[in-house]
Design brief:
There is one protein chain. The chain is an alpha+beta fold. The protein is built from four helices and three strands, in the order αβββααα. Strands 1-2-3 form a three-stranded antiparallel β-sheet, with helices on one face. A hairpin with a 2-residue loop joins strand 2 and strand 3. Helix 1 packs parallel to helix 2 and helix 2 crosses helix 4. The mean pLDDT is about 85.
Length: about 110
């Protein structure tokens, strides 16, 4: 199983863990939901492993699920970029927050 397959499986299992926030997939589009309600209105879908990793980190953060497990391959890629695990997790959290802001800003204004 590839890292992408494992990450996608982890994201789809989020519902079975009782997480309030999760991504629901509808026709290839991913919708961020909280308690089953969409909290974004613009279509989004991960384009590569990096996007899936950000989505997974975002869910771990929003659901107070602790540190997201990182595979040895991902840690090796981080090391090749001269980042230790702490620095990588910091960068990952920052980028996941940026994704969250993009998704939240996509909502239409409330009346």
């Amino acid at each position: 199983m590839s890292d992408l397959d494992a990450m996608l499986e982890n994201l789809t299992r989020a519902a079975s863990r009782g997480w309030r926030c999760r991504f629901e997939v509808d026709g290839g589009d991913w919708w961020l939901t909280s308690d089953g309600l969409r909290i974004q209105q613009t279509r989004w879908a991960p384009s590569d492993e990096a996007d899936v990793l950000l989505a997974a980190q975002l869910l771990h953060t929003l659901n107070d699920a602790g540190d997201m497990p990182l595979s040895a391959r991902i840690l090796e890629i981080a090391a090749q970029a001269d980042m230790d695990e702490d620095h990588f997790r910091l960068m990952l959290g920052r980028e996941a927050y940026k994704l969250y802001i993009r998704l939240r800003r996509s909502r239409p204004a409330r009346r």
